[in-house]
What we know:
27% of the residues lie in helices and 27% in strands. By secondary structure, it is an alpha+beta fold. The protein has a three-stranded mixed β-sheet, covered by helices on one side.
Amino acid sequence: FSGIEKAYAIQAGRELRVFVKPEEIDDLTAKKLSREIANKIQEELKYPGEIKVTLIRENRLIEYAR
């Protein structure tokens, strides 16, 4: 998938955290992308229970007052 910066499997593989590039992915696209990732996991993997897909799109702005 394009626009993904990094991804981590955590909680013994029960959760997938995906960090996307905020300049490439807007809020609506992020929602669609998380659904696409969940569907892809559901189609291609066999696993007991469920896997949570968390997509994180953040901007960090830092300013200093002197």
